[in-house]
What we know:
binds adenosine-5'-triphosphate, flat, 5-stranded parallel sheet, 16 strands, binds magnesium ion, 20 helices, 13% strand
Amino acid sequence: xxxxxLPERKQVLIVDDEPNLRxxxxxxxxxxxxxxxxxxxxxxxxxxxREHHIDLVITDLKMPKVxxxxxxxxxxxxxxxxxxxxxxxHGTIDTAVEALKAGAFDFVTKPFDKDxxxxxxxxxxxxxxxxxxxxxxxxxxxxxxxxxxxNSAGITELYAILERVADTPTTALITGESGTGKExxxxxxxxxxxxxxxxxxxxxxxxxxxxxxxxxxxxxxRGAFTGAVTSxxxxxxxxxxxxxxxxxxxxxxxxxxxxxxxxxxxxxFERVGGxxxxxxxxxxxxxxxxxxxxxxxNGSFREDLFYRLNVVPVRLPALRERTGDIPLLVxxxxxxxxxxxxxKVEGAEPEALEVLVAYPWxxxxxxxxxxxxxxxxxxxxxxxxxxxxxxxxxxxxAMANVPxxxxxxxxxxxxxxGLKEHVKVAMSRLERELVSRALQQTTGNVTHAARLLKxxxxxxxxxxxxxxxxEGSPADKGE
Length: 479
Ligand SMILES: Nc1ncnc2c1ncn2[C@@H]1O[C@H](COP(=O)(O)OP(=O)(O)OP(=O)(O)O)[C@@H](O)[C@H]1O
Ligand SMILES: [Mg+2]
C-alpha cells in the first residue's frame, strides 16, 4: 500500500463466513462513513489485506480455510499496529483472551449490539491515529511481545513469566543454548519494569580477566592496587536503581562467588581497597549457557549462589524445540533485512520454509538471523526460495549432525595428514556409505538409486566403479 494512495475515508475489512452478518455490519459501517470491504474466510481476508490499504479489521474466529486467529497472527506480522476486532461466539472466551494477548484490539461476543461495535471501531481507529503507524514489528502484534518473537508453547510460557516477574525486584536466572535470546530476555525484563528509565548495565563475566572481576563489579578506591590512581565505581554502583545483567555467570571465578553472594544477600559491598560500605538498589538478572548443576557437581559453582540467583528460572528453548516459531521469525527477519538491505522480499516459498524447519540450528536464533540476512541479500525473486539458502542449511540437514568422535578428531590433529587429506578421507567414506545405502534401499536398481542420490545414472555408475561397488549386488561393497 503505497502511501500516496491512502484513501481519505477509512477502510474497514469485515471477514465472516455468515453472509447475513457481513451484510448487516457493512451497511452499518458504510452509513457511518467508512469504506467497507468484505471477505468470506481468512484466506480471502489475507488477500484483501495484501491488496488494499486497510485501517481496521473485524473478523469472525471460526471460519473455513484460514480461521480468525491465524488471520490475526499473519496480519499482525505484516502490520503490527493494525487494529483487529474479533467476533466470538458464546463459549469461546478463552480464545478471545488468547486473541487479546496475541495483539487483537478488542472482541465482541455474538449476538452483539450494533452500537457496541460502532463504538469499538471508532475507538480503535482513534487509538491507531494517536499511536501513528510506524511501529516496528518487534514492538507489537502476535508473537512479538516484549520484542520477543514466537507463539510456540515455550515462548507463550515465557511471555507469562515475563509478565509476572518483569516488574518485581526478584533475581532471574536465564538459561539456554547460545543464540536463544538470553540477552534479549534480560533487556525485556528491564524494559518492562519500573526501572526502565534507570540504567541497564551488562557485565560479561567471561570477557573480564579473573583478577579484574572484583574491581569491575564493585569498583575500587584510589591506591587499591598499582595503577589505581583515582577511585572508580563498579558496575553494581552504576546500575543503582536499575538492572545489573551478569552474562555468562557460569564463568565467574569461584573466589568471586562468595563476594557476589554477599552483595546479593545484603545489597551491600565495599569497593576494592575501600572501607566504606556501599548500599545499592539493583535488580539482578544472570544468564548462562552452561549447566550450572553440573558446575556445582564438579565444584566450580557454589550451590548457595545458584539458589540465590535461581529465584525465577527462565529456560529458553532451543530453536529446534520450537520449529513452529520459524515462519514468524523468518517474517520478522525478512522485514528487518528488507529495510536494512533495501530489498523487497515478500515472504518465503513453502519449500524454503521446509528446509528451515528441518535444519537443527545449533546456533539458534542468531544463526537463523544470519541465514536470513544472507538469503535476502542473494534473493532476486519476489519470495525467498530454498536455493537462496546457504548449501549447508539447505542440502543436507541430516548430515550436518554426523557425530565426529572426539578421539578421531584429536588423532587427526596429532597424525600426519593435513586438513585437506582428512576432509578427503572423511568425504569418500561418507560417499561410499550413502551410495551403498541407496543401492541397498533400491535393491540394487541403479536407476532408482541414482534418483535417490539426485545424480545421473551414468554418474552413479562411474561413482560405483570408483568406489569398487558392483552393480546388482548391493550387499557386496566391493571389499
Ligand atoms: N525470540 C526472538 N525473537 C526475535 N529475535 C530474537 C529472539 N531470540 C533471539 N533473538 C535475536 O537473536 C540474536 C541472539 O540473541 P541473544 O544475543 O539474546 O542470544 P544469547 O542467548 O544471549 O546468545 P549467547 O549465549 O550466544 O550470548 C539477537 O539478535 C536477538 O535479537
Ligand atoms: Mg548473550
